[in-house]
Amino acid sequence: MTRPGFEAFVARLPAVSVVRQWRDDSVAKVGDKIFALLDRDPGEVWCKVSEMSFDLLTEMPGIRPAPYFARAGWVAISVDSPLTGDEVEAYVVEAHRIIAAKMSARKRRALGLDHLEIKGLD
């Protein structure tokens, strides 16, 4: 995924900001919480996933535990992974939902995210 594509995609999600951090990575935040990033351009997409997805995805070629973020359940998806662009985007959308759902109800309301489904969190 390229930087313009990543940034345009995540910017369409509710209450998202994109900042350049660390080594000029594109970092997507919902509120003030990171849910995904693009490491290099083009490069790996890093995102938060469920425990089950973490176990399944990290068994696939081209997908590894994300450095520094793995203990929190993040994966790094390279362009060499077998996932399609639509599948990567679906994981990014799910990462947004997971992180937003962990916020307080008050914070979700303030960000206009009170409509998000919060069932199924692990």
Strand and helix layout:
Layout: H1 3-11, E1 16-21, E2 25-30, E3 33-39, E4 44-48, H2 51-57, E5 63-65, E6 74-77, H3 85-101, H4 105-111
Antiparallel strand pairs: 1-2, 2-3, 3-4, 4-6, 5-6
Q: What features would you highlight for this structure?
A:
globular; 6-stranded antiparallel beta sheet; disordered C terminus; alpha+beta; 122 residues
Shape: globular
Q: How far is it from the N-terminal to the C-terminal residue, by CA?
A: 28 Å
Question: Beta-sheet strand percentage?
Answer: 25-35%
The strand order across the widest sheet is: 1-2-3-4-6-5
Number of strands: 6
What is the tally of helical segments? 4
| Proportion of helical residues | 25-40%
Q: Any idea what the radius of gyration is?
A: 14 Å
Structural class, judged by helices and strands?
A: alpha+beta
N-to-C SSE string, H for helix and E for strand: HEEEEHEEHH
Flag low-confidence runs. Answer: 118-122
Characterization of the model:
The protein is of the alpha+beta class and 122 residues long. Helices cover 33% and strands 25% of the residues. It is built from 4 helices and 6 strands. It has helices at 3-11, 51-57, 85-101, 105-111; strands spanning 16-21, 25-30, 33-39, 44-48, 63-65, 74-77. Strand 5 (63-65) and strand 6 form a beta hairpin. The longest helix has 17 residues, at 85-101.
Outline of the structure:
The protein is α+β, with helices and mostly antiparallel strands and 122 residues long. It is 33% helix and 25% strand. The relative contact order is 0.18.
